Structure formats: C-alpha cells, structure tokens
C-alpha cells in the first residue's frame, strides 16, 4: 500500500476513467473503410456478448455493416425496417440519404466517434456503418422487456388513481405527460455516471417554478462525477444533509402526486431504472398527507390526517412515555391503574426497560421477516408472530400483557404513515426516545423532543427550511398540514418564492361563494 | 444556496414571546403575591406596560442598525470602544443569568421528579442542547422556538382551561387588599423580567429583514407575555389561595400537582416536567446565543465550535455555584435587580446618544448637500 493510501489521502484522488470509455482506445474516428471500422467497434465492444454484426450487400452492390445487441432491439423492426430496405436499395448508401429515404426508423442520429457509437450500442440502439463514409448512423430500435404500469406497491391507496411509475424513464415521462399535457411541462435530460451513463431527467413546469431552484438542481446533478449512478446515490449526492435520519428529498411512485408537486412549483428528478421520482424541495409536514385526502370530503380527510399525526406520535413516543411513567413518574397515573399494571407484571423476570426493548425488537423482526416473504406466507408469518407468539410469551410469563399491547399499538401506528420513506426513520427514533426515557424519564423524552425540533429546524431541502410551513410559520400552509382545506380556500400555491403564486382565479371563488 | 432564509416580524414575535415568558412562568406568582396579594396580576401587567417605552427605544435603535449582525449593530450605535464595553456587559449579565437558570432547571427537576439523578447531570444534558443550538446559529434557534411554541401553546391552553375550571373567585378577592406602595414594589420586582424580554427583542430584531411596524410587533409580543404571566398569577391565586401561593417558591408546580384531570392523570404534573424543560431550554439558549454573539462582536477571532465549547464551560461553572434553592433564588434576584434593572437607565442613554449622533450626521449631510448645490 502506498504512503498516500495509508494516510487516507487516496480518497481525494479522482477515480481513474475506464479505458474503453476514452478516445485513447483507438484512433477514435471512423475511417470510412468498412473493415477496419468494424474491427474498431468490435474491439471496443468485445465479442463475448450478444453483439451481432450483419454485413449487408445492396442491389446497387454497396456494402454496409449493421451492429446491434440481439436482446435489446426490436428484431422485427431491424429485419423489416432496416435490413430488407437496405438489401433492396439500388442507390448509393450515403448515411443521410439512407436514413431519410431507405430505412424505416423514426429516430436516428449521425456520429463519427467510435466511442459514441459503442455507447449507443450499449444502450440498445443499432449502429449502421456505410462503406466509404466516415459517419455512422445510430438507429433507435431499442426494445427492452419492461414491467407494465402497475399499482404502486409502497404507496397504495384505496381511492384515487392506482397507476405508478416503472423502471423505464421513457415510459415514466410519457405517463407524466399524459397526466399533465402542457407545453410548459419541461424536462432536461442529463447523462450521469462515467460507466453507467444513466439518463437523469430534471422536470419542472415553466412559468410556475422558481428558476433559481431549477438552476441549483441542474448544477448539483452536473457536479456528480461517479462511475455508476442509482437512486440512492443520487439522493446522497444532491441532498443538503446526507446523514440526516429523515429523508430530505421525497420519493414518490405515483404520477398524480408528482403532478401536484410540479404544479406547486417544485422540481422533479427521474432516473432511468428507478421506479419513481424525487420531489425537490420536500417538507417534513407533508408526510401526513396522502393522495386519498384529495378524494375524500374535507372533514373526513382532516380526521384521517389527525389519525396519522397521532400514529406518528405514538410510534415515536409511546414506548418512551410508558417507560417514563412506569419507571419514574408513576405518581401521575391513577393508583388503581398503576396497581393493575403492576399486578399484570408480577412474575415477569425482565426489567421493564429490557422487556420493552426485547418486545420492540421482536416486533421489528416479525415485520421485516413478513416484508421479505411472499405475500401469503408473509400474512401467515404476521399472524404466527404477532398473535400466537405474543400470546405464548404472555402465558409463559416472559412478558406482561400491558407491554404487548403497547408494543402492538406502536407497531401498528407506524403503518399509518403514508410515506414509506418515513417508516424506517420513525422506528429508529422510537429506540432513541426509549433509551433517553429509560435514563431520565420524562426529562429524557422532552430532551429528545427538543433535539428533534432543533435538528428538524436545521435541515434544509435544497435551501428551503425542511419544516416549512410550521417553521418558518405560514398560516395557510400550517393549517393545511393538520386540516384538509377546501380547494377554493387555497387560491395560492405554497410559498416557494415563485413569481406565479396564484393558482385559482377570483371568479371561481366568487362563483363558489354564490356571489 | 439559501432560498428562503429570512426572519420576518412574525417569526421575531414568535421568538420574543416564549423567551420573555421563559421560566418566569413558574415563580411569578410566588414573587408578586406576597407583596401585592390579590393585585399581583395587576402588578405584573403594570410592570410590562411601564416597560413599553423601553421596547420602543430598543426598536428605535434597531432601525439604525445593519441587518443580521449583532456586534456590528452595537458598534454602529456606540462606536468601537463604547460598543465593545456594552457587548462585554451584555455577555456578563446574560452568562450569569443563563448559568443560574441552568442551575435552576437541574435543581428543580432533580427535586421534583428525578431525585436519584444529580442536578449536574441534568444541567449537562440541557447544556448539550444549548451548545448545539448555538452551533446551528440564530436563525435555526428562532425556527426551533417556532416549533416548540407549536408544541407548548396547546399545553398552555389545556393548562389554563383546566385550571380555570377549578378556580375559586373568592380566592382572588379582595383585588386591592394591599397598599399601592406594595403593589408598586411587586411591579418593580417584575420589571427585570420585562427587561429580559426587551433585550432579547433588541437582539432578535437586529436580524429581522422587514422593519416596518417592528415596534408594534415587539411591543405586542412583550405585552402578550406580560398578560400571560398575569393570567398565571390569577390562576395560581384562584386555585391555591393566597397563603398557599405565598409559601412556595414555584407555586405553579404546586398548582399542577393539585389539579386532577378527570379519572385519568392524577394531576398536570405530566405536562409540567416537559414544560419546565422546554422553557428552561428556551431561556438558557437565548442567554447563551446572546452571550455568544456578543463575544463574537467583541472578538472576531472567537470562532465556532471553540466559542460554544468555552461558553458552555462558563455556563456550567456558573451553574455549579448555587447549592440550594435559597442561594439560587437570591442569586437570580441579585442579577435581575441590579444588572438587568440598570439597563432601564442604560437603554435611554444609548437611544439618546444614537439619536443625537444621527441628528448631527443628518445636519452635516444637509450642509454638505447645500454647499455642493451652491
């Protein structure tokens, strides 16, 4: 190991670019002579894979070479749209003429650099080289098996649209455009990843979005210099605090949610291969909102938001508060209640705190196990773990029934969260609160509350305060966190420093009021 | 990039209100009732109303200060030497008060809820939060206050609603049982609390971007704090009666222990401990940040995190001084009634100095403009 590496400075050295990616691999340009050009391209791509090379002879006795990856292209289109027309062609096969008059491929481009041609082949496109010409044609005949549009697995709802994004960026963009068919819906495509060259789309609605925000998002993405990019890496590399326990950028699988975010002046980032989109900026209080809220009556939706808030509080604080009340401040409980709880605990060998920790971890194990199992087995596992195991543990005197109730309630409350990204962080927070409450009682719980408030206030999502609209406090927004306000009471978009803040005309509001 | 990093008037008010109330929430009735009896609440309102001109003077100073830098603002008002002396004075009084409030939090919570835990451990725990807040900066502290206000306001409302339901009007009568001089004395003892709020308002408003109607906002926040404190006095007297209220240093604690909520919680104690810690955090952190920013104003070389760590040591050292409630209360009274009361004289002098300087500069500018146009 070199001295530099031992001192840890090696981390500062830029990763070495791969050989095949650079122009150094060969002369770099097509020569116009078909045989050496084909050799160059074959050398760059390697011959072990599924690369196909078809040498074609036209009726006019001209030569051409067609490269493609058999598993990644539409073979019907290749044979009927490219090979047959070329074989029947009698004229000279000059690339531009071929593309415009001979072959039947909707999207093409001309390229002279061999590396670019190899990149195109790696993406699943076909490359046509014509003898005597220094330009190759990149033909978009890609057809990769894709998952169809399905129900959102992690953000499922009872009412409202059920469609979700898939792994293909193209399909996702199409899905988005079908929901928001406006010329103002813009997207900028970037390629990130020195090896993977992953397509990243930055999407926004022009005229609504704050242009500074778009610029910032593009700058942060363009700064990324990495071999391979996937969704988690992207979030880590562009978010304001990668070590934050809560996600500072929201990920959604649902087109309808993304459209709503875009219409509020936010920016979305989509990544090829990721079934979802990142919403920028994201705010913590929005976690209580579900897509269903907008299909419910305001009163019902408000009640459900209250239930979710209560669920969140129970998840994080109930075990801690329970331990604090039982271990430190039992004076605050009515004597009869305290006696009943104590009586139920008689014979339990473990201390209260240890009992609570063990049960919570056991519950998390059951949840994790049933999540990884196939659906039906998972359900059975949940029943076995939750009911039979719990009952047996109580009967055996390992744990008290009171704790089982508290732990079950805490576990169930966790799943009231509409945002799947928050399930994990809330589970972790619960243990932190429990640890401090077992040491300092309600002092410890409150200490954690203040720490959470402090940390949450310090976080920013692309420069915007993460706790907006609760902090900095904004009346209308804060009200919308806890209540589902009728649409005509919200004529303005949330304050994201956009110039276009009004989303509803005054006429609509007047008509609604019957004026 | 900071797209939305601003402190506006509303945020400032949300910060000034809890800092002014602070831990005064707990001993206020115990201080004013022995002197003013049933008129204790009037004494509190009187004190805060009397303090309003000082609020306006402070905002008058803020209007002549650059945005966002406390040290620079003080130097603009008073010049380098006098400004430095003022900043040192502020550091001294706030460090002393903050350290004592830290001690108070540890002593009280150890006594009423965690008898097996040494107060110093609780002080250290609270100090960790305080130091973290200072490291995050003024804006994050104000944002945290907003969040904590959202948590504490419902609790205060519940507290008031339940206390009102068991309040006995007879306990408040007669309202004017004491001589006016004793009521005035009680008001005098309440004046330092108002001054704490005024000085924090002076500090916070320097960071506010929009300064229109700022005096109304700051005055409103401080007067609201006064009214809330007066209400606490009314509730404590109304529920406990005068004799019981007089016999406790922190009658609010006793009040929470005697009120029963239905058939569930035995009292409001469960709400008291979190409230005490939150208010202690608010007040001690406000003191800490004021000291930290004043030290930075005096000596630009005092960089973070070293500044916060050293100041943490200072606060902890002050917090070790009082070993009983009696010495603690005496120490806090001494700081309040001497150093903070002195600010009632210093602030008008500062305002006058800045006003005269401003007038002189304007006159000079007018002469220069006239000469130039000639």
Q: Name the chain pair with the biggest interface and residue counts per chain.
A: A-B, 41 and 42 residues
Number of strands of chain B: 0
Mean pLDDT of chain B: 88
The number of helices of chain B is 14
Order of helices and strands of chain B: HHHHHHHHHHHHHH
What characteristics describe this protein?
heterodimer; A: 515 residues; alpha+beta; five-stranded antiparallel beta sheet; B: 374 residues; mainly alpha; 78% helix; globular
Textual characterization of the structure:
The complex is a heterodimer of chains A (515) and B (374). Chain A is an alpha+beta fold and 515 residues long. In chain A, 45% of the residues lie in helices and 11% in strands. In chain A, a hairpin with a 5-residue loop joins strand 4 (126-130) and strand 5 (136-139). In chain A, helix 10 (298-327) runs antiparallel to helix 14 (401-414), helix 12 packs antiparallel against helix 13 (375-395) and helix 12 crosses helix 14 (401-414). Chain A is elongated. In chain A, 36% of the residues are buried. Chain B is mostly helical. Chain B has 14 helices and no strands. Chain B has helices at residues 9-21, 28-36, 40-50, 52-62, 70-112, 119-136, 138-165, 180-205, 214-240, 242-246, 251-258, 269-298, 306-319, 325-373. The mean pLDDT of chain B is 88. At the A-B interface, helix 7, helix 16 and strand 12 of A face helix 1, helix 6, helix 7 and helix 12 of B.
Give a nutshell description of this structure.
The complex is a heterodimer of chains A (515) and B (374). Chain A is an alpha+beta fold.
Q: Which helices and strands occur, and which strands form pairs?
A:
The complex is a heterodimer of chains A (515) and B (374).
Chain A: H1 3-6, H2 34-45, E1 51-57, E2 63-69, H3 75-87, H4 95-102, E3 108-111, H5 114-122, E4 126-130, E5 136-139, H6 169-179, E6 185-192, E7 198-205, H7 211-222, H8 231-238, E8 250-252, H9 255-263, E9 267-271, E10 277-280, H10 298-327, H11 335-345, H12 352-372, H13 375-395, H14 401-414, H15 423-440, H16 442-458, E11 460-461, E12 464-465, H17 475-482, H18 506-513
Antiparallel strand pairs in A: 1-2, 2-4, 3-5, 4-5, 6-7, 7-9, 8-10, 9-10, 11-12
Helix pairs in contact in A: 2-5, 6-9, 10-14, 10-15, 12-13, 12-14, 15-16
Chain B: H1 9-21, H2 28-36, H3 40-50, H4 52-62, H5 70-112, H6 119-136, H7 138-165, H8 180-205, H9 214-240, H10 242-246, H11 251-258, H12 269-298, H13 306-319, H14 325-373
